[in-house]
Amino acid sequence: MQEANETHKTHETKPGPSKPGPAEREFVAFAFRYAHRIRVVVVCSGALLAVPAMPVGAVPAASAVSAGVIVWSVLHYRLARAGRHPRRTLVADLGVLTALCLTQALTIPASQTRYGSTWVLVVVSIVAVAYQLTHPARLALPLAGLLAAVDLAGAVLDRPDGWTYALPNVGWLFVQTLLCQGMYRLVLRGSRAADAAGARAAEARRRHDVAQAQRSAEREHLATLHDTACATLLMVSAHGASLSPDVVRTQAAKDLRRLAAERAPAGTDKTDEPHEMREAYEAYEAGGLADLTRELLAELDGHPLSVHIAFDRAPGSLGPVPRAAAVALRGSLGEALRNVDRHAGVGVATVTAVRDGDTVTVVVRDEGTGFDRARVPAHRRGLTRSIVERMESAGGRATIASRPGEGTTVRLEWPRV
């Protein structure tokens, strides 16, 4: 966590989006960890190996300088990980490196200068490269130039008549720095592109989910209209004058309550509504669990069809189910009964309901004319939309068995098994 905090502080000035994505954050954090770890390893190794290479008389001074470099490297690593005082740490780091470069006469044997490369230059190079991975470019590049200049100044102090040996490798330090900065920029750009692609994909998924939710809500609304107002009007047209006005009023009141419960937004003040309508609103908004027995009996209450109820009517006898499942089972039961009333040619149906563990099964059976599902017109969507799709959307299943002259059985199961 501390490393991540320091990473954010270090790179907050780099160009790019104000809120880096996961790929960019992961890459920046990796570069930060890698740069500091490889730096401490290389610097400490170079300081340790420098002492044996010195002449015997120069070992004490070289040992003191090397020990100071090692102590600072470990301390710098800890400070960087903790994210403590980054500006002060940077100033102290530059001070230590400047002192190291200007004391090359104490730490570099003459034999190393013949090849133009010294352990001090290796240390300066790795630090300059590490800066490219831990600091913004507008600061990291000037810091690399400063280190190169200090190292060159140290070479001049060490060999006033032969310091030109250091020029090629100091020039190579700039090449290393630019290559590292370019590599960092390239990978950073790729990380941002990956984040942008991920964001576009997430937005596409969100839009798809919203569209799916809208279509689902629209299907449910159409199913509710089909099951309420449309069904009641069809019932009136089918029964005509033989239908009791009280039955029509009761059914119309139930339809209004269901439609009002569906359309009312959450938090609406409903204190002026009748008690039954307020109860419907509260049930709609509460979510959670519902008493399935109560829901099924509420659907059967006042139905013009003569229904033989073959299950225990005691409250809670079928146990609780999620409200979405209760709504699906109740709506599918009502549509099955309306189909019996409109198409079966009989005035009675049997409804059974059982619970086996977590599985609830509701069966509607009639001894009517039956039908051949293959011959049902395409525009007749009652079975498919109001029963099959409704049960599937709630995680259940509906099966319909019917043959001409042998009646119809609608079996509702939740959850799907």
How would you describe what is shown here?
By secondary structure, this protein is α+β, with helices and mostly antiparallel strands. The chain has helices at residues 2-11, 22-50, 59-82, 86-102, 104-107, 110-113, 119-134, 137-158, 167-239, 245-263, 275-286, 292-300, 323-344, 382-393, and strands at residues 289-291, 306-310, 320-322, 348-356, 359-366, 397-402, 408-414. Helix 4 packs parallel to helix 8.
Largest sheet: 5 strands, mixed
The assigned structural class equals alpha+beta
Please count the helical segments.
14
| Strand order, largest beta sheet | 2-4-5-7-6
The sequence of SSEs as H and E is HHHHHHHHHHHEHEEHEEHEE
The best one-word shape is: rod-shaped
The end-to-end span amounts to 46 Å
Low-confidence stretches: 1-17, 265-281
What is the alpha-carbon Rg in Å?
40 Å
Helical amount among residues, as a percent range?
Answer: 55-70%
β-strand percent reads 5-15%
Whole-number average pLDDT? 81
SS elements, strand count: 7
